[in-house]
Amino acid sequence: MRFAKTGLPTFDWRKDLLPLFLFLVLPLLCFPELFFKDYTLFQADLTWKDFPLRVYAAEVWLSGHVPLWNPYVLSGFPMLAEALAGVLYPLIFIFALPIPAYRAFTIFITIHFTLAAAFTYFLVRVQGLGRSSATLAGLSFGFGGFLMAQIINLNIMVGAAWLPLVLGAFILALRTQRPLIAILGGVPLALQILGAQPQIVFYTIILLLAYGLFKSGEVITHPSRPSSPLREIAKIWGFLGLLLGVGLLLGAPQWLPTWELQRLSVRSAGLTYEKMIDYSLPPVQWLTLALPSMFGNNVVSSYRGASANFEETYVYAGILPLILAFLSWRARPRSEVIFLWAVLVVAAILSMGGYTSLYWPVQYLPGFTLFRVPARWLMLVNFSLAMLAAWGMDAFVRRPGSRRLRIGLLILWVGVAVSILLIWLLRGPLAQGLQNLPLEKDMRNALSLGLQRGLFEVGTFKDLMFLNQMAWWLMPSIALVTRLGLSVALLMAYSARRLSRSAFIVGAVVLTAVDMVLAGGSAVNQVTEASYWDNLSAGARYVMEAQKQNAGRLFAIVDGNENMVPGLGQYLPSIYHVYAASGHKSPLQLRRYSTITNLDNEFLSLSLTGTRYLLTQEFFEVASHVPIRLVHRGDDHWYVYENLEALPRAFVVHQAVAAASGEEALNILQSEGFDPHTTVVLETDTPGPLFATTPEPENEEVVITRDDPAFVEIEANLTSDGYLILADNDYPGWQVYVDGQANTITPANYFARAVYLEAGEHVVQFVYQPISFRLGLVLAVIGVVIIITAVWSTYVHAGVRKSAIP
What we know:
By secondary structure, the chain is an alpha+beta fold.
């Protein structure tokens, strides 16, 4: 790459546009069904949370409000604070376009493959490598196994896409020695914060800190060390401080509410080591670097890996990029290559988590106890391999290699082909022998099934446009032998001067692109007809109609992708405006609400949360003394049961008891004889009036007259003093006004809200105005001011000074 006199890189758009166009078009080949048919992605978390939350957030934005609160799930939940929703992420505007929601979903997902590839391309070019190297790296990371599999965890995939741009901005700032570049580098970091799970942001910051340490060490150990190394090191950390500072300021409207939620969530105390190592990468899974889907995947067969989730263990970077990554060792005089190899090794060790004793000290490092699934370090494994492939490509193009290298490549291919043949012939005895390996049972079983079946399994890709005709080529054993053979042939031909440089580059890009398409996309991600999103059960429609007459909440008892939409499970009530006490059990689920919904006394849980309707596919006989009755039995085998003792969402009681702590309140609620229909437990150090014997008055009325996501208005007519209870989660930021005057919300029944009212008619308004969000906006404005000031001082002010010089 050429650099202008300013030190900034220059791009020739006539030449750089072609790779970018390739990145834009490739998603169409990866997911042709999504673009050329009425199909949608749908599996797991995409159905449970990603689709409904983003559709609902766009709806709220279009109404002119910020999606701060979701009243439809979990008895009310701080939607903005749940980072997986990404309600402040700018690209959520795609869901506001006048197109079907499933089309918006497709565009939102696939555009991030293009962005990841383009940002990787930018990073490689910033490091001074050629377009061919940058294109190869973009394909390997942007369409690699990590991003492809993590579609299921969409906020992880979205966050990973921004990683190369954040690091590229830091490297460019150091190269050009321009503070403005570091300041502008805070923008992609902020976008990552706004759209990603915090775990991915955490890993990105660790990578930035590691690079800062690496460059500092380079200053100290470099033979031509500057006369003032401390000054150079200070510059490195100054640039990093600017990038992180601006990024955190701009991202404050997201991370501040998320931090507030974390302190009140089930993860407030962090994780134990046993929980931290959940979903560690079993070492046997490294075979998928060369044999994608050897252990099955979500499309061709049930997943048979040693870990429970395919999406957390898939790390395919392409066969040719993998070979070139190893060839990057020829470029080791460049310090960046050493750094990438170090990142690769460390990330690989961390990804194995509990399978290696080296992970044990991690629990004592700050921040690590907040996250589980060590296998997500595979993001940096895939990233490092892609970047090393770029360096390997650059080195190989410049110095094609010797006869010795060609012989080694040929031996590699022959050895792999013969090994595959022997495994096929000896798969029976081999399976027996594998049982004696000193491996954990799960890994032995996975390896045995993988070698016996997975390697030679011909998948069926029903209704897929291209893949069904290429099922044989997608068999892991055939895929490895053919793709490795083509890669070796290409490298040997160029090394022997049988191919021109341009022909080799075109061949390498085409082979890698085809490889990534066949190893990802619809081959590993389930798609189905878009009508999937409208497949509500008769029971769900019954509840929707019933709620128009009675505001009682729904609790969905449902599992499995095929039942999630019909049963309005997880976050799906959001897009149908169904009030539910159920929802996605996020790692940041409110701790108190989780306790309430898991009480031993299930009827008490249902009553306290105002749950009137149970929607399930399970038919059960109800004893006569149980206050639950079957009210709907559909031909589609969905049943609706009504809880006859459900409390309304808003109601008044005239008996109250005080509790000094949450634990005491919980004990009172579960005590024998306690009746939540007549009595409220108030959790306060300075209780207001408490009524212990006042009989419940008749002819009182409590009506919710306005119900917006962050605003609830209630008209109450009391014949005597009492407490108005709103059975929504009590949460910082909610304020109450009684007849236009600010009043006090008292925590009630361990999780809900209460306000004291005197006898008479009142208008009560609950308003959600979180300080964390408003403070975040102030910090974001400061970040914007810093950027504007930096741009002005760099260009406008400098230009004025220059023109003033005679």
